[in-house]
Every structure is written in structure tokens, then in C-alpha cells.
Structures
1.
Amino acid sequence: MSHEGPLAGLHVVIDAGPTYEDIDPVRFLGNRSSGKMGFAIAAAAVAAGAEVTLIAGPVALATPAGVARRIDVRSALQMRDAVLQAVEGADIFIATAAVADWRVAEYSSRKIKKGPSGAPVLELVENPDILAEVAARDPRPFVVGFAAETDHVLENGRKKLERKKLDMLAANHVGENVGIGSDDNALDLIWPGGGESLPRAAKPELAKTLVARIAARYRAQARA
Ligand code: C5P
């Protein structure tokens, strides 16, 4: 933590990357999230003076310099436990993780074998919504969510902001070479009563702008 910068003196918790939902000892359900956006935001938050806790799903990324603590998890349930513990007393929570929406109802401790009865049918159950759970806490940190959208980005984003009771939502354009898994991103920022489009840029650059906007909104809200 530094004594200078727009986030000086603040504890920021960031979750990042995908979650893997194990089916048996060798198979899992996953997604294409690389964690790059969340890690870039962690680096930008450190540069802005914050004490940063980074909770990472399975990613192949080095911890950005200056991150106070990194907690590695695998599944959505593990990520939930780590986040709920870390946000205790934290000032800002930024949920960039692509948390799996579903996990298998019953994990098989033995490898599922091919057999004469054909392909297995996997029963799925819904994972808890970590972001909504943090936003429902009282007291709660300033809460920033992400949303990957292919269509009606602003309209869907605004609905999500209200439904999950967020302080800010960063809506991701998902498409060719932009968004999930890629090096570039573009974001539509939405907050209650306002918004701003951040044009396509490399993730580290975009992360700096995003962190500056989060700091400004956080300070504005603290003054209100
Ligand atoms: O509703 P949707 O999955 O599009 O919301 C995305 C946002 O919610 C992201 O910030 C993501 O990190 C968060 N999320 C979560 N827990 C889930 C699903 C999404 O924290 N189970």
C-alpha cells in the first residue's frame, strides 16, 4: 500500500479468471477467461496506491508486483469462500471473474468410464452469485461488476446494475479479438445516473482508466 494515488489507504479485493467445476478426477467444466483483465486491474490498483487482494481462478499469470496477497482457487464455491472472507472490512470489490454459472450436482470421485449404456447425462446445479452476495451485505464495499454481452450492451448492463444493486458495472463487448481471452478490450461503464464508454485499448491501459473512474465514483459516493 502506498500513501499516494487516488486509491491510497484503501483495501481493494479483485476476483479474476475462470472457475473450473470438476466432474471427476480428470474432467471439468471451464470457460475461456484468461484472467488478464482482472490481473491488469490489480496492477493498476496497486499503482493507484491500493492494498490489493487478488483472488484468482486457474490462470497462467504471474502476480503483479505490489499485490499484497494472492489467493488461488479452483471452483466457484472456493472462490465464494475466499471472496466473502476477503471483503470483510474491504473498501472496494471488483468482480472480474468469469464464475461458472453451473457445477455438476454430484462429483464422481472415480473416473467416469465409457460403457455400453452410452454417454453419461450430467445434472447441473446453479452456483451462488458471488457479486450479488457481496452487494447484499451491510455494511458492504463499493461494488463493481463486469458483464460480458454480445448484444444490447447498455440496456442489459443497466438491468444488471439494478438487479444486482451494484455501484458500477463494466460491460464488456464480446466479439472478434476483443473481450474474453484476448489482449484488448472495450468497456461501457454504467453507474446509477450515469455512464461512459471506454474505447478499445490494450487491457493494461484500459485498466488504468477504469481504476481512475472507480476511484472518482468511490470518492464522490463517500462525500455524498
Ligand atoms: O450475470 P452475469 O454472470 O453476466 O454477471 C457477471 C458479473 O457477476 C461478473 O462481475 C461476475 O464476476 C459476477 N458473477 C459472480 N458469481 C456468479 C456469476 C457471476 O460473482 N456466480
2.
Amino acid sequence: MVSLRFPFLFSQPPKPNPKLPHTKPTTTASTFLAASAVVSTAGAAAIAICQDPKDPFLKKALNSLFSNKSNHCSLPLWGSLSLAENSSSSSTVVESKTGVSFPSVLDDSKRLLGIGLRKKSVLGLKNIDVYAFGVYADDNGLKKFLSEKYGKLSNTEFKENKEFNEYLIENDICMTVRLQIVYSKLSIRSVRSAFEESVGSRLQKFGGSDNKDLLQRFTSQFKDEYKIPRGSLIDLSRERGHVLCTKIDGKEVGSIQSQLLCQSILDLYIGKDPFDRQAKEDIEHNLASLLHK
Ligand code: DAO
Ligand code: DAO
């Protein structure tokens, strides 16, 4: 069985990173070989072999491909795969601390840019892992945005350009942040108070103090009777026209048209003070490498 540690770290030098995503063994051997060919020619995505393949031909091919052998699931190789190649492989990427997996492609057109973990400090005494998240962006929208806005910059210039995240946060590019709950004792009441704090502070930052109504509209979507046990999936999607659409376990619970709200939600993950700094950095790296593919 082969496990790919998939590709959202493009075109970077390998670096030790315990939070690098692992991919579950959902990819077939032939897909892997197709992906390997891309890797060997283009050089770049992080791919790991977690277990030896049973097929001797594949094993041989892999051995010759990965001369740098490792027993870990985290052997980094750097390759470049397109969205089409990703989607055909139906690969998933695993958040290493929680074991939560994310598809590398969502809704056929959204590309996974990075994954991370939302923690919460409780009474300053302990940190709990609340949910793992994956940040996705529409591939076409993203490429258009990147080439129009940053096509002339080199990789280094792009990485140093801090304004591009703000642009992504503010503009009408379809994006989804998928949350998978890992904390097993989450009550709707604690969710409401947490996002009054997190989303509320962003609404204030971007829109000024008078945004209670907007926050209220958002939180009132989440009825007291909803249950969000461990494993629940929440998709927060910015759809065209700055419409924030929320789904719980695939079921739409509401949508609100507000640029301010969309911006405030995305800022939690890719803004100046993100929940998971490493996730934000991974996303920046991936955007930079997409630009120069
Ligand atoms: O049990 O009191 C407690 C701690 C609860 C922490 C809740 C954090 C909620 C974070 C928002 C989750 C959004 C889905
Ligand atoms: O982590 O502090 C945070 C903010 C999370 C924002 C998204 C909340 C969506 C929660 C849906 C709850 C459904 C009952």
C-alpha cells in the first residue's frame, strides 16, 4: 500500500516540519506512478511512502524514485501536481496531531492550500484542540488572481509581499474553510461565545464597533438544538458576491451576504494573527509556488 504525502508544498526546498500533511493511502498504484512521473520531471510535492507496496514492480519503481529511503511516513520529496492530477487521485491530507484527513480537492474545483489546528486556552490552564481545518480556494479564481496581481513578481518578492494575503481575504475569490471538530465536549453555547470573541474582534477590526447585528445574524443560524460532536464537519464557504454559506455535515444551515463577515472569517485563518501560524505559512508557500508553476 502506498501513501502519498500530498502536494501542497510545491517548489520549496525540503525543510523539517512536524506539521507537514500526510496523505492517507487512498491513492492507487497507477495514480501514484502517474504522480511520480510528474514529480520526477517537474520536481516538487511532498510525497511519503508509509508502507512498502505489495506490487514488486511498483516497489522497484518507488525504490529507484526515492533514493533517500526512510522508515517514516514523512519522507519529503518535492513535486508539482496540477489540480486535475490531484482530483484524479482522490488523495487526502492528514493533519498530523489529530489524524483528521482532508481531501486535496473539494467540490471538483477547490484546491487545498493548507491545513492547521484551532486550539483554545481554557482559563489559562490548558490548551484544548478544538478542530482541525483545511483552507481551500477555487483553482481558476486563484490562478487568475495570482497572475493578474502578482505574475510579474519573483518567488522571493512574492513571499515578501505581505499584502497578497489581505487581497485574498478581501476579494471575491471562492474559498472554503473546512472545520472538523476534534473536541468531544463542544456545546453550542461555548461555540457562540468563542466566535463572539474571535469573529467579533475581526468585525470590529475591519468594520468598526457597530457590528452587533451582523454577528447576531451569524450566530443565530446556529440553533441550540444542533449537535456538533467530534467528527462533525463544518464548511464555511465564501461564494460569489461575498456570500458566506455555512454547512454542517453537508447540510446548508444558512447564508449571509456580507463582505465584512467573509473577510472576518478568512482573517482567522490567513490573516495577521491566525489561529495556526504554520498553516498560514504553508498557504503562503503554496500560493507562491502555484504562481510560478
Ligand atoms: O469546554 O468550556 C469548554 C471549552 C470550550 C472551548 C470551545 C471553543 C470553541 C471554538 C469555536 C468552535 C467553532 C466550531
Ligand atoms: O474558531 O473561533 C473560531 C471561529 C469559528 C468560526 C466558525 C463558526 C461556525 C460554527 C458553526 C457552529 C454550528 C453549530
